[in-house]
Amino acid sequence: MCSLRIFILGTFLFMVSIPSFASIIGYRGEIIHFTGDYLEDKSAYQHYSDGILLVDGGKILKAENYSSFKDIHLLSELVDYRGKILVPGFIDTHVHYTQMEMLASYGNQLLDWLNKDVFPTEMKFSSSTHSQKIASFFLDELVKNGTTTALVFASTYPQSVDAFFMEAQKRNMRMISGKVLMDRNAPAALLDTPESAYRDSEALIKKWHNNRRLQYAVTPRFAPTSSEQELRVAGDLLAKYPDLYLHTHIAENQQETEVVKKLFPYSESYLDVYGKYGLLTPRSVFAHAVYLSNDDFNLLARHHSAVAFCPMSNLFLGSGLFNYGDAVKSKVKIGLGTDMGGGNDLSILRTMSEAYKVTMMRKAGSQTPDNILPVSPLENLYLATLGGAKALDLDNHIGSFLPGREADFIVLDPQSRSILDLRVAESTSLEEKLFAFEMLGDDRTVLHTYIMGKKMK
Ligand code: GUN
Ligand code: ZN
After folding, report:
1. pTM of the full predicted structure?
2. Rounded CA gap, 11 and 8, in Å?
3. What value, to the nearest 5°, has the Cα angle with vertex 176 and ends 287 and 142?
4. Residue 115 to residue 432: CA distance in whole angstroms
5. How confident is the prediction along the chain (457 residues), in pLDDT tens digits per residue?
6. Distance 94 CA to ligand 2 centre (A)
7. Cβ neighbours of residue 372 under 8 Å, at least 6 residues apart?
8. C-alpha span between 354 and 345 (Å, rounded)
9. 457: buried, middle or exposed (CB in 10 Å: 19+, 13-18, 0-12)?
10. Does the Cβ of 252 fall within 6 Å of ligand 1?
């Protein structure tokens, strides 16, 4: 009797606790992902040269060695990506969808570029139809480039945010965006007021924040285009809704930092301008941070705020060289950003190549070059995946293949370019192979992009 009860109970437990294999898909290929803060712990990653990624209902079950997985016959499907690399989807921690049409504008540095190239383009986003067309184009380009999550500037017009979120939701992409706050030093047609900024932002927050995979970022453009009242509005919104993001630019260009000193003479530093209004939070992302001091990095780290390293933009606009080494030492959270249109592409692979060059130039300019290491191949991949997820406070949802994470992942193909294929065939270590992908890869290298387990490319 007793043994019969145990038998029935055992059968029941088996039925409830083992997931139904009927829905699990396995993806076989080389797998790399990070399990913790790789900048601090160089063992915090997993690499399976012949691995299997198990996905069920849009979530990751686990990644492991193919040879240790004994239940292949129970899978609903086994997809063979041998010869290719599976990594988590790329995360772009700073980009402007409203600059899609004017990327690659010649000759101007930041302040002239904003006035001559950016602002006239952003005026077109007063039209919902135009916003929707460009948002759709932009998101399709992200998918082509393997970028599955981004922190995105829209424009001052609330309708440009509605259009962006609607298009992101159609694709089920995890996206963060917000209306730009800007009430001075730009064309009148692009300005809001502190009152309209609060009202319009709050309406958008109620509509979109935490609506499925979408989240809202309070987005003052940068200190020069916000009055003190407008920065106070940003702080008030963050205080009222503490899980919002804060997204802005900081210390990108030397002329810009001089302007900030003149506009905010009583502030101790550029960062202090934002700090005074309560804008340093664990969900704050500051783009560029080229001209920040060690004290600034340390202060950001204490507040658990993040910086977006945007090397392609910093080179394209001739802004300067981000101090990666000091940023890492401070333990501030760091993600990679394309900053397109400041950056001249949406490719995170190409951004990794620019990151490497920026850190090499830092070495060239240093008194003690032997003490400076350029960003390594694994660090670059970390910044583009789990590092970016941590910068966006989303590492419990995306950025790795740990169990339960959302199944946003990409398949990289060495055969996308013959020079990449040749170089990969010559490589004798994981680092060497990854470095080839990062230096030679682009949108062609992303063979497939999966969003919540659904193949989108
Ligand atoms: N600073 C203020 N606005 C912008 C912008 O649109 N792009 C960049 N790169 N920097 C900015
Ligand atoms: Zn930017």
Report:
1. 0.96
2. 5
3. 85
4. 43
5. 334 343 333 333 344 444 567 899 999 999 999 999 999 999 999 999 999 999 999 999 999 999 999 999 999 999 999 999 999 999 999 999 999 999 999 999 999 999 999 999 999 999 999 999 999 999 999 999 999 999 999 999 999 999 999 999 999 999 999 999 999 999 999 999 999 999 999 999 999 999 999 999 999 999 999 999 999 999 999 999 999 999 999 999 999 999 999 999 999 999 999 999 999 999 999 999 999 999 999 999 999 999 999 999 999 999 999 999 999 999 999 999 999 999 999 999 999 999 999 999 999 988 998 888 899 999 999 999 999 999 999 999 999 999 999 999 999 999 999 999 999 999 999 999 999 999 999 999 999 999 999 999 9
6. 6
7. 325, 359, 362, 363, 366
8. 11
9. middle
10. yes
95: β partners = 152
Check if the beta carbon of residue 175 is closer than 8 Å to that of residue 148: no
User: What are the residues whose beta carbons fall under 8 Å from the beta carbon of 23, sequence distance 6 or more?
Assistant: 56, 57, 76
Cα gap 155→119, rounded to integer Å = 10
CB neighbourhood size of 369 (10 A): 11
- Closest ligand to residue 316's CA: 1
Closest by CA to 52, choosing from 73, 75, 69, is: 69
**Phi/psi of residue 260, nearest 5 degrees:** -65, -40
Residue 291 CB–ligand 1 contact under 6 Å = no
Q: Which helix (H) or strand (E) holds 446?
A: strand 446-451
Query: Residue whose CA is closest, atom 11 of ligand 1?
Result: 249
Domains of the chain, first to last: 23-89+400-455 (2.30.40.10), 90-391 (3.20.20.140)
Please tell me the distance between residue 372's alpha carbon and the centre of ligand 2 in angstroms. 27
The answer to whether the Cα torsion of 219, 223, 225, 231 is positive or negative is positive
The CB of 186 under 6 Å from ligand 1? The reply is no
- For 269, the 3-state DSSP assignment is coil
Q: Which of 97, 105, 221, 316 to mutate to test the pocket of ligand 1 (most atoms within 8 A of CB)?
A: 221
Buried b (16+ CB within 10 A) or exposed e, 244-264: bbbbbbbbbbeebbebbeebb
Test site for ligand 1: of 339, 344, 354, most ligand atoms within 8 A of the Cβ: 339
Atom of ligand 1 nearest to the CA of 153: 6
